């Protein structure tokens, strides 16, 4: 595959990594231009503006889109290039970098990350990876995500972590866990899943954790779905039934090692699509999150699209 000629679009999150994003963006531009590429700045004034500018750039014929930041920038990139022929380059300088870690890309090493992009552009070397699409059932609207959609205590923790300015990375997530556990009660769910073998299943229960994973990690290194792969055409559905508060306290540290999968309340299954709805068996679940970004309230349907994104890797 040869990458088509055209400018390279650049989207930078200047706040990533305690302000390292702006410096990383400047260095990325410098290296791309030194290699002879025309660079089009698409960052925009707001995240929504950046998404619109990136999509327009892809429509106008970019040879590639390069995002500089953390998982939020990867999320933006997926929503700009999914189902197109425009490849995505990732310069990972955020606090979490869960997707870049899963993809085996350099972390917090700008020159190395840009070298991956430049080599891939020069050699036409790309990697097809899956993208997950999430939308309300029967809706024509929706969004793409790269990593993990969470809809339980994991989502409430994610939302709280986003509001915290200190500390960074997994420590911020851990602080958010402590804050959410203070008054935790299980949520109510109805989860319907379609499996690769053509069967379907339903989980109707009070629950603690619900995650739909296209990649293994979220929250700055928590291995919520250790067996998930970004290019296998499947989603890993992770559920945890109703747990008492102290049981939940014991479960979350195991996410760092992926050993929660042996807990009797935890179930993991391979799926191609999942519908998550609230039920009256517990509290109303929180707003769902994906790649650290707010998606919206339940019900939601997630579908995997194999090879929908092309990575420069």
TrEMBL record:
One of the record's GO molecular function terms: kinase activity
Sequence ranges assigned to domain DAGKc in this UniProt record: 3-137
Keyword vocabulary terms for this entry: ATP-binding, Kinase, Lipid biosynthesis, Lipid metabolism, Nucleotide-binding, Phospholipid biosynthesis, Phospholipid metabolism, Transferase
SUPFAM superfamilies referenced in this protein's UniProt entry, alphabetically: NAD kinase/diacylglycerol kinase-like (SSF111331)
Cofactor: Mg(2+)
Pfam families linked: DAGK_cat, YegS_C
Region annotation (Disordered) ranges: 1-23
Listed InterPro entries: ATP-NAD_kinase_N, Diacylglycerol_kinase_cat_dom, Lipid_Phosphate_FormReg, NAD/diacylglycerol_kinase_sf, YegS/DAGK_C
Similarity remark: Belongs to the diacylglycerol/lipid kinase family.
Protein name according to UniProt: Diacylglycerol kinase family lipid kinase
């Amino acid at each position: 595959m040869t990458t088509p000629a055209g400018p390279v679009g650049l989207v930078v999150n200047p706040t990533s990594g305690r302000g390292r994003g702006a410096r990383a963006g400047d260095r990325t531009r410098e290296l791309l231009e030194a290699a002879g590429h025309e660079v089009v700045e698409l960052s925009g004034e707001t995240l929504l503006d950046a998404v619109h500018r990136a999509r327009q750039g892809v429509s106008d014929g970019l040879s590639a889109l390069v995002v500089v930041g953390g998982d939020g920038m990867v999320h933006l990139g997926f929503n700009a290039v999914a189902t197109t022929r425009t490849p995505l380059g990732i310069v990972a300088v955020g606090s979490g970098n869960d997707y870049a870690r899963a993809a085996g890309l350099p972390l917090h090493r700008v020159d190395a990350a840009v070298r991956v992009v430049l080599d891939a552009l020069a050699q036409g070397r790309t990697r097809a990876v899956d993208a997950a699409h999430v939308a309300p059932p029967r809706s024509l609207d929706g969004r793409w995500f790269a990593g993990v959609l969470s809809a339980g205590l994991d989502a409430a923790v994610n939302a709280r972590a986003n509001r915290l300015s200190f500390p960074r990375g997994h420590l911020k997530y851990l602080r958010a866990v402590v804050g959410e556990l203070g008054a935790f009660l299980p949520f109510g769910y109805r989860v319907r899943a379609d499996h690769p073998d053509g069967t379907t299943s339903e989980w109707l229960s009070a629950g603690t954790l619900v995650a739909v994973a296209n990649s293994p990690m979220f929250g700055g290194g928590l291995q919520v779905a250790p067996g998930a792969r970004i290019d296998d055409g499947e989603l890993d559905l992770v559920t945890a039934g109703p747990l008492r508060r102290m049981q939940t306290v014991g479960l979350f540290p195991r996410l760092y090692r992926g050993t929660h999968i042996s807990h009797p309340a935890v179930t993991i299954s391979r799926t191609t699509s999942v519908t998550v709805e609230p039920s009256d068996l517990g509290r109303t679940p929180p707003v769902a999150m994906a790649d650290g970004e707010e998606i919206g309230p339940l019900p939601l349907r997630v579908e995997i699209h194999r090879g929908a994104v092309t990575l420069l890797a």
